[in-house]
Structure formats: C-alpha cells, structure tokens
Request: fold
Amino acid sequence: MNIMVMAGTSDARRIIKKLSHTENHILATTVSINGGELAKKAGASEVMIGRFDYTKLAEIIRNNEIEVLIDATHPFATEATKNAIKAARTDKINYIRYERPVLDIPDDGLIHKVNSFNEAVDEIIKLGDKRILHLAGVMTLKYLTGRIYPHRIVARVLPTVFSINKCLEAGIPPKNIIAMQGTYSAEFNKTLMKEFDISVVVTKESGISGGTHSKLAAAQELGLDIIMVMRPEISQLKDEKVFNNVDNILEEIKQIK
Reply:
C-alpha cells in the first residue's frame, strides 16, 4: 500500500518508524530539509520537501498512487490540515489524522488562556512592562513585535538561518535570540527563564510531545505569568478519522487492507 505521511513532528517520526516495519511504501512530506532527513532516518521510503497547497497535495496523491494520507502535522498547522482533508476528499482516498492528546491545563491565576496570538498580545500588554520569553515559534513572533518593544522579548527558535533572520527582521536584538532545537526539561527551562530575567512566558498548547508540560512546570515554579494559546479548532475534522494513539493508526490501516 502507498501511504503518505505529512510529517515534520516527532509524532510523525514515530508513525513512520512503526510503518517502516510493514510492507507499505511510505512517502513523507516535510517543510524543511532537516525534517526530511529526520523522516528518512525514521524509515520513510521517499521524502518530498516543500510547502504544499491543496492543488500540489492532490497532484502528489495522484502521481504516487497514494491510498492513505496520514496527517501528523503540528496541532497549529491548520492550513496544512485543511489542505490535506480537501486533497484526500478530492481524490477519494483514506484520510487519517493523528492528534496529540490535549493537555489538562490547570486553573491558575497566572495562566492566561487565549484563543489567538492577537489575544495573547492583549494579555501581555495588560501585564505591563515586563520581559517576555516567546516559546511559540518564529512565525508567530510578528504578533508580539508589531505591538511590543522588541528589546523586551527573548525568542527561543530553531537554530536555522531562516529563524534567526526572522528574529532580526522583527527587531529582536541578537543577545535575545536563543537558537535551540528540541524539547527540554522543566529544570532546563527554569534555568533559561531565570538567566534572562523573564516575567512572562508565551507558549502554545502543543501537547506533551511539544514540550508544553515542561515549559508550564518551569514557569509555575518561578511564579511567572503564562500566556497559553489554546489549539485552534478545525471544523473540517468533524467527520474524519482522528486518533491520539499511534498503534490505533496502524490498526486502522490494517482494516483498510
């Protein structure tokens, strides 16, 4: 069976690794070269790199005779998921969504739950002139720097030329750019927060595999304000097969055969 995995996350790599032990041909798509290399190491038969819109995804499905599309993109990659669903429906193939389990965010006066980055900035402004640690991805940094003095912001981003250039374009001073890749322990996050004299942490509810729990634990231990951007709802997923467990996805694929 020809299976396409929309990858780029640690969840996708776990799915690819398990599928690699089957007789299926696995085509992985990622948006970065590094993501492609990781997908290949996980066991993908083939990798395609790029940002694919609906039209391109449909073309890839047809050209590669894909029978199952597994969408394991990031919970906040809403456009990617919408494009995947539309392409799968157009070509009448099986669509499966892997959704990270949602974290139970406690009710705490220091945790400010918001539904968008515009709302996040509103909350930050209410808190006054404080130093901010942005842990929500370089592409969302623009929401902050559009309304907040960039020198107040410390950004932890991927160690890529693209990410660092984005930070500099947004006005973040070099000394406030932390270029690192991976998820980290609460203790490590706490050390960073103390070192940079942080008062407010901005992050996304990206689940355990996204490191949200350790960011939250570190900030709570230090008594910092946390701006938590909650996951967007994707109405198109309502009638689709959605799983929170990798093994359940493999069982579903066996049923398709």
DSSP finds ten helices and twelve strands in the chain.
